Amino acid sequence: MVIVLNNHELIARDVKLKDQNEKTELSFYFKVTSETYHDITVLLYENDFRVHIPEKNITFSATIGQYATSINNLYEEGKEGDFFLLLVEK
């Protein structure tokens, strides 16, 4: 499933969308490569997202509620890691 954060498309898997305390929560995993690592980390540091899920016609503003990665050093060429995001509606 495609998830768009601030006009940046991510190919997401294990997507979960739910309402929690009257706010939307979206969690998902996505792959990050050594080639895309810098752009993704710059995007995530913004922590102010316009989230769009085209397949479900859902759009909302969110911040990071939880973040995790399977690898610490994606600066080495050819590496790939799994990132996890839980986004919470503002």
From TrEMBL:
PROSITE patterns: GALECTIN. Signal peptide: none annotated. Residues 1-90 form the Galectin domain. InterPro entries: DUF3219, Galectin_CRD, YkvR-like_sf. Pfam families: DUF3219. This is Galectin domain-containing protein. It comes from Oceanobacillus kimchii.
